[in-house]
Amino acid sequence: MPIICSKCRSANAEVQIPYAKLNLCPCCFTDFYKARVRRTVEEFKMFREDDAVGVAVSGGKDSAALLQVLRLAYPSLELKALHINLGVPEYSTHCQQKVEKLANMLNVELHVFSLPEELGMGIGDFEKTPFKGKLCSACGTIKRRIFEKLAIKAHVRVLATGHNLEDVAGVMFNNFLYGRWEQFVRLKPVLPPLAKGMASKVKPLIKCPENENMLYCLYNDIPFREIDCPYADEIGVRKRAKILEFLSRDNPYFRHQLLSRFLEIMPIVEGITQKPELSQCKVCGFPSLSEVCAFCRRIAMVKEAIGKI
C-alpha cells in the first residue's frame, strides 16, 4: 500500500526524511527543501534580500541545487553564478556546459574564469610539481583565490558555496579529533571578508544532507555534472563518510546533532584560537600569511614546471 505524503495528505510519498519523521511527495519535498534553506539564511543572517550574491558553481549537484533554490526562494535577489574552468580535458568542458545551461535556465549572469585562458595552465599540470600526489589540496587553494577574484569582478558582497551537511560535519569532526582549531573556525556558516572590498562567505546548504541535494536536482530537472574529476582523491572523504554513516545508523539525527553541538562551541573555539596576522601578498596584493601567498607560490611552481617562466 502506498505511503501518503505527510504534508499535503493527497499525493504518494517518494522521499523519506527520517530525522524529521516525514514522508513527502516531490512537490512537498521541494517546498520543505526551499523553506529549510530560507531558515538557514535567516538564522545566520547570511545576506539581505537586496544584496548582490555570487554562487560558486562547480557543475556538481550541491552548487547547482544552491543556485536554483536561491533563485526560487529569493526571486528579487541579485544573483550571479561564478564558475572556474580547471582545464581538465573533457571533465571541465562537461562541467562548464552544465553551468551554462543552468545559468541560462535561471536567467542568471554567469562569470567564468578559465585556467588555460587566464593562466596558461590546467590543474593537471600540478602533476609535474611536488603536488603530484596532492592535486586536490592544490586545487582547493587555487579555487578559493579565484572565486575571491570572481566575486570582486562580479561586484557581489556575498559569496555562497554549496557545502552540504556531510561536508561540514565530517570536516568539523576530523578537525576536532586532530585539534586543528584554526581550520575548525573556517567552517563557520558565515565568514567575514578577509579585507575591505572582498566578499563574505556563506554556506546556505550547511543543514542539507547530500542525498537531498541530489533529489532536489532530480525532481526539479536541474542540470549537473555526470562524470567525476579524474584527479579526485576521495579517500579521506570516504573515511569520514563511513564513520558518520556508522554513527548515524541507529540515530538519524546524529549529523544534525553533531553540527548543532559544534556550532554551540564555536564561540569558545574562536576565543582560544589566535587569529593570524595577515599582510598583503607582494605579487597579487591579496591578504596573505606570508610575503607571497600560497596561490601565487603554487602558480609560479606550475609555470616553472611547464616552462612558462
Record the SSE blueprint.
Layout: E1 15-17, E2 22-24, H1 26-43, E3 52-56, H2 61-73, E4 78-85, H3 91-106, E5 109-114, H4 115-119, H5 135-153, E6 158-160, H6 165-178, H7 181-185, E7 190-191, E8 200-202, H8 210-219, H9 235-248, H10 254-272, E9 279-280, E10 287-288, H11 294-305
Parallel strand pairs: 3-4, 3-6, 4-5, 6-8
Antiparallel strand pairs: 1-2, 7-8, 9-10
N-to-C SSE series? EEHEHEHEHHEHHEEHHHEEH
Number of helices: 11
Cα-atom radius of gyration: 20 Å
Strand content: 5-15%
Domains counted in the coordinates: how many?
A: 1
Oligomeric nature of the chains: single chain
The strands making up the biggest β-sheet line up spatially as: 5-4-3-6-8-7
Q: What is the tally of beta strands?
A: 10
Q: Which segments are poorly predicted (pLDDT under 50) over 5 or more consecutive residues?
A: none
CATH architecture: 3-Layer(aba) Sandwich
The largest β sheet comes out as:
6 strands, mixed
CATH-defined fold name: Rossmann fold
Please outline what is shown here.
With 309 residues, the chain is of the alpha/beta class. It has helices spanning 26-43, 61-73, 91-106, 115-119, 135-153, 165-178, 181-185, 210-219, 235-248, 254-272, 294-305, and strands at 15-17, 22-24, 52-56, 78-85, 109-114, 158-160, 190-191, 200-202, 279-280, 287-288. Helix content is 47%, strand content 12%.
